[in-house]
Structure formats: C-alpha cells, structure tokens
Specification:
alpha+beta, nine-stranded mixed sheet, six-stranded antiparallel beta barrel
C-alpha cells in the first residue's frame, strides 16, 4: 500500500513532463511554419524577378511597295521539235548538237535523186508545152488553127508549170532548214537513217532571246494585274542577282479546276559572258534593288542581236521565283519579322514600357499582320508608329517581365533572312 502511494506522484510527474515535451515540440513546429510562411510572404512581396536581356526595335511608318510572289518556268517564244515533211534516207547533216544557228540555215539533206530526175523531165515538158502554146498562138492569128487547140495547148502549159513547181517543192522539203534563229538541242538522227514524216524527230530548236516566263496566280489577284507591270526574277543559278522583265499577257479564262489564271511575262535574255563581269559589260545595266540590296540586272534583246550574242544565261524550262511590283502604299506600319511571335491562337509582339521606378517591363500585344518583304512585316492592327517593341529574346518573356535592352547586335540590318550564311 505505501509503495502504491509513492508511485502515483511519480506517474503524474512523468505524464506532466511528457505533455510539456509534446507541447514544446508541436508548438515549435507550428511556430516554425508560421514564421516560415511570414518570411516567404515577405520575400515574395519584395521579390523582383531578374531582368531579361532583349533587343529593341521601333515600329516604323514607311511607304510600302507591295509585291505579288509566284513561281514559274521559262518557255521559248518559238520552240519546236524539227521534223520532216518528206520521207527518205539522210544523206547530209549540217549542224552540231547544242549549236546556236541563224534562220534559214541548212540542217539535213534527204535523198532527192528521184525528185531531181523528175524535175529534169518537168523542165523538158515545160519547154515543149511553151513551144506548142507559142505555135498555136501564132497559127490562130492567121486563122490556121481552132480556138480549142489554143486553149488546149495553154492548159497543157499551165499543167507543165504546176508539175515543175510541185517537184521543186518536193525537193525543197528534202533540204530542211531552220525556221527561226535559236539554240539546237541534241541530234536525234544519223547519216543513212530513214526518216518518216511527222514521226522522226531531227533536233529540238528553241529561240533564246527574248523568253517567256509563264506562271499561275490565284483568281483573287486578277484585279491587281496589269500589262507592262515590272517583274523581278530570281534564280538559283544566280543567287546574288535579280533580273527584270515585263508582264505582257494575261490569259482570257480562269482554270475551273484550280481557280488560277495563267500569266505571261517577257524577259530579255542575258549574255552569260556579260554576267561574269556585270560592272563593265556594255550589254547590261545594273542597279541596286531597293529592298534586298541585290544587283538588279536589266538585259537588252536589241543589243544582243547587234552584237551577235549566242551564249545566254536563261534556258527554256528553267525554274524561277517571281515578284510583280504593285503601286506604292503610303503610311504603312512595319516591324522586323523577328519581333513577331507566331502562334495558333494569334500573332503577338512584346511592347516595352516604363514603370514608375523607370525600370522597363514588357506587355504582350496581339497584332494583325500583313505582307512580308525580306525581314519586314506589315502590321495592320495593334501597334502605332514610334512604339518600342522587343526585336529578339521574346521566348523568355511574359507579361510584366523586367527587361534590359542591349542593341549592340543590330538584327534588323539583315534585310533578307535567306541571305544568312550565304
């Protein structure tokens, strides 16, 4: 009994100590979390996100020269696969593959020995009929023959003349010449080969200067097309040069399947030798293009003909990129294309604004974009002239992000992104 009375105060003391320990532990944890929460709130209340370095550009107002872009192919003004109207064996070849040849120059000769013999017969017959007709004409003057005899002799004379001309035409068909000046292709026939009219191709002949440039445009652009509009041409084989032509024909109907219209430009061909030294050649004129600063070359067909140029830069069938000049539009807002973020839910730019403490922050503004030339894009809606926008570095930005401007590298000096690395 005395032992139990002694143990009860001891148990109460231990319980009290345990309760106090638990209060201290849990109180410490709760106090720690409260202090931690207060410190976090104080930190975020005074926290400033690190500044993001970006480049800046100014929204510019300028006169815009819109252009219609297309792709097309060169075609010859006159281009044929030379064939023969007569059959027979080839007895003479007067050209080489790839040769430039003038009009009415001989290409091949086909065996005409039978026609030549027939021609001699026709010539003899014509001589005889001329004598008969002269004799009958003299006799009729003395009433020594009938009128029907005179008419008959005259008819035989005309028949003999016709037979002679027919044979001469057949002989001419067997001596094939060039219908126009141009570049010959690869020879398709050999000596001794038998030619079948309309089936045996002799050689391809393509006129070289000037050339047509044919392409297709959507029917919606028909109202923006006019004859004699300037056409600027670029090609892979001359990456640093542009060439000039004129719009010369618009098709009279629209393709009902593709709803496009065929358009044709005429382009003077350029001497390939002249393009090797564009600064000193008298055959071409060169100036700097207003947009991409490339050399714009203008060639002259008349000068090429006067100087008997036979080696040309463009070849029928070549592929070309085309831009058709349009009337200038004044007071257009433009920004570099690198300043625009293109997304599925809209295109936007980051406008740079000043805070009250003079630091800089950005604000996302959605814009409506228009045509693009080089590194410039038209802004139809959303910005005003003179605003400062982020030119590069927008991938790291959100609304309200603090920024620092560093324009040591001027990205907008790259006029044509396609020229990067070239």
């Amino acid at each position: 009994m005395p032992m139990m009375l002694f143990q009860q105060p001891l148990l109460k003391k231990r319980m009290t100590i345990m309760i106090l320990a638990l209060v201290i532990v849990f109180g410490g944890i709760i106090t720690f979390n409260i202090i931690k929460s207060m410190l976090i709130k104080r930190f975020f209340a005074t926290f400033k996100s690190p500044s993001v370095t970006v480049t800046s550009v100014v929204v510019k107002e300028k006169d815009w020269e819109p252009r219609i872009a297309a792709v097309g192919n060169f075609t010859a003004m006159n281009g044929v696969e030379v064939n023969s109207q007569a059959s027979g064996n080839v007895v003479g070849i007067h050209f080489k593959s790839g040769q430039y040849i003038e009009q009415d120059q001989p290409l091949i000769d086909i065996d005409d020995s039978v026609e030549v013999a027939t021609l001699k017969f026709n010539q003899a017959d014509l001589a005889l009929q001329e004598l008969n007709y002269k004799r009958q004409s003299d006799l009729i003057k003395h009433n020594a023959t009938s009128s029907s005899s005179v008419d008959e002799s005259r008819a035989k004379l005309l028949e003999a003349q016709a037979n002679l001309e027919k044979t001469q035409a057949l002989i001419k068909q067997k001596h094939i010449t060039t219908p126009f000046a141009g570049q010959l292709g690869i020879r398709q026939i050999d000596l001794g080969q038998y030619i079948t009219p309309g089936k045996t191709s002799i050689v391809s002949l393509q006129s070289m200067d000037p050339l047509y440039l044919e392409f297709y445009l959507p029917e919606q652009l028909l109202g923006r097309l006019q004859l004699n509009q300037t056409v600027t041409i670029s090609m892979e084989q001359n990456p640093r040069l542009l060439f000039e032509g004129k719009l010369t024909a618009i098709n009279s109907k629209i393709d009902t399947n593709t709803h496009t219209i065929q358009v044709q430009a005429t382009v003077p061909n350029c001497s390939s030798e002249a393009l090797k030294n564009i600064d000193n050649s008298p055959l071409i004129t060169v100036k700097k293009h207003a947009i991409n600063n490339k050399d714009l070359v203008k060639c002259d067909t008349t000068l090429n003909q006067k100087n008997h140029i036979t080696s040309f830069n463009f070849v029928p069938g070549m592929f070309a990129s085309i831009e058709i000049e349009q009337p200038v539009i004044s007071h257009v807002l433009v920004v570099p294309s690198t300043a625009i973020s293109y997304t599925l839910y809209g295109n936007s730019v980051f406008v740079i604004e000043k805070r009250s403490d003079q630091s800089l922050q950005v604000k996302r503004v959605f814009v409506e974009t228009g045509e693009q030339q080089g590194n410039d894009t038209v802004i139809k809606k959303g910005l005003s002239a003179g605003q400062l926008v982020v030119g590069a570095g927008e991938l790291k930005l959100q609304d309200g992000t603090t920024v620092t401007i560093n324009n040591e590298i001027q990205l907008d000096t790259i006029l044509n992104p396609n020229s990067l690395g070239s």
